[in-house]
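Design a sequence for this backbone.
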């Protein structure tokens, strides 16, 4: 069999496996919903309990590369930052971890590039706390969704190679003419497939509250509670709440399912605009949920991150230490 035919056959087999697994999950969801009075998608029948952790709350400081998105994509040599520079920045400012957002990896990188990132982080005394993929699971069955699943699996592999315990995933916006309810079911089945794969690599998937079909916290909870994989949780982004509820109330609803936290320095209140995040209130919410893990600053505000990020990291470090006392 020539290489081209072999690759085509392999892709057909992979697509078939995706479809078979999706259909199994969809049948399971449908069967549970048919029991009656179980909420959207039979969520209560498939529901998992919040994440249980022994011990006391413990917050570890990390920084998301997205904070320096302009520099990481700049064509100005004087301003340009690479992920290696970013790792050094994290180490120089006292972080425990460094979150390497996938958007800023070199184009067409290979294993050697991952090896060098891993080496740099280790030599600077940092853990690679996570990475991210820009996927969309809210679309009908077919080659587009299959590609989203394949790309997510590829980044699960990259995360595992780097030693990163977590990868941020999105739910997405409905495509292909499907309605919101169908999009949520598609997302659930895709998360089951990817969660099953992530389990074999020891990598957590964190579904972010990031608009689209999870613009309301209740929708995100419907999905998380319906996914049976114990390797799927929430990537809690403190700045991405746009619903009717108080943003801090929404944080408290998601915190028990959090496997990673991204701290924004501003929150949004519907109809009221932006205001500075109450850091101590966020820490109290995480503490009450017994969260133990990374809290990555993801800076999006207007001030120059080269000035603002060190200031916020210092505030976070001081606040985390106060909580631990």
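Sequence:
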């Amino acid at each position: 069999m020539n290489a081209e035919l072999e690759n085509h056959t392999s892709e057909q087999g992979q697509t078939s496996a995706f479809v078979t697994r999706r259909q199994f999950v969809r049948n399971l969801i449908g069967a549970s919903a048919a029991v009656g009075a179980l909420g959207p998608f039979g969520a209560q029948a498939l529901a998992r309990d919040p994440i249980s952790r022994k011990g006391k709350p413990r917050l570890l400081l990390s920084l998301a590369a997205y904070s320096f998105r302009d520099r990481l994509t700049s064509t100005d040599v004087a301003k340009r930052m690479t992920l290696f520079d970013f790792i050094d920045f994290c180490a120089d400012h006292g972080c425990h971890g460094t979150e390497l957002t996938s958007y800023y990896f070199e184009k067409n990188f290979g294993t050697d590039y991952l090896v060098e990132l891993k080496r740099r982080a280790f030599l600077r005394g940092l853990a690679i706390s996570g990475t991210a993929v820009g996927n969309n699971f809210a679309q009908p069955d077919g080659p587009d969704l299959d590609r989203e699943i394949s790309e997510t699996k590829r980044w699960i592999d990259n995360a595992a190679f780097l030693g990163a315990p977590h990868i941020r995933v999105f739910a997405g916006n409905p495509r292909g003419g499907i309605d919101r309810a169908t999009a949520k079911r598609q997302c659930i089945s895709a998360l089951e497939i990817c969660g099953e794969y992530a389990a074999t690599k020891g990598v957590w998937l964190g579904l972010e509250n990031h608009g689209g079909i999870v613009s309301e916290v209740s929708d995100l909870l419907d999905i998380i509670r319906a996914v049976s994989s114990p390797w799927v949780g929430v990537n809690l982004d403190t700045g991405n709440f746009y619903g009717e509820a108080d943003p801090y109330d929404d944080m408290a609803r998601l915190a028990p399912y959090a496997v990673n936290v991204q701290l924004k320095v501003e929150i949004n209140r519907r109809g009221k605009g932006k205001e500075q995040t109450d850091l101590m209130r966020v820490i109290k919410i995480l503490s009450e949920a017994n969260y133990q893990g990374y809290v990555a600053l993801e800076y999006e505000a207007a001030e120059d991150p080269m000035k603002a990020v060190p200031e916020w990291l210092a505030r976070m470090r001081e606040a985390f230490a106060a909580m631990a006392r």
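The radius of gyration is 20 Å.
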